[in-house]
Amino acid sequence: MSVDGLEIRRERITSVRAAGLISALNAELTARYPEEGANHFRLDPDEVEEDRGAFLVAYAHGMPVGCGAIRRLDAKTAEVKRMYVEPAARGYGIGRAVLGALEMQARRLKVDTLVLETGNRQPEALGLYESAGFVRIPAFGEYTRSPLSVCMEKHI
User: Fold this and answer.
1) pLDDT tens, residue by residue, 15-61
2) Is the CB of residue 58 less than 8 Å from the CB of residue 66?
3) Using alpha carbons only, how large is the chain's radius of gyration in Å?
């Protein structure tokens, strides 16, 4: 597999393809973080509507292999959510491509800061975000009481 021919497009979070990716992501996170209250799965469909955010699906050779979303938190800030790449498709730059496409969506929304939360048991995610220019920040919002959360931000 390669990122040649990778297509990233906006999709409804309620689509069958999105639901499959989100289900796989939730299963992986539940396995990594079995503790009660450790996972923050909430992302409402209206939060990724055209004027508030975006939900993107990455396709390789016509097959959905990854996803990611942003939701506006306020006039200047959006949060990256639901980043996921199928295990067989990892290591080919798909996560980086989805993250780049989400940054473009953030610019379209005219926000200047992206924030995110990931877990401390996801070294591959931490590496991706750090290499993309995100820096660690104090926990925010629903993550303030989560000892397993790592929060980050990037000014775009």
Assistant:
1) 999 999 999 999 999 999 998 777 777 799 999 999 999 999 999 99
2) yes
3) 14
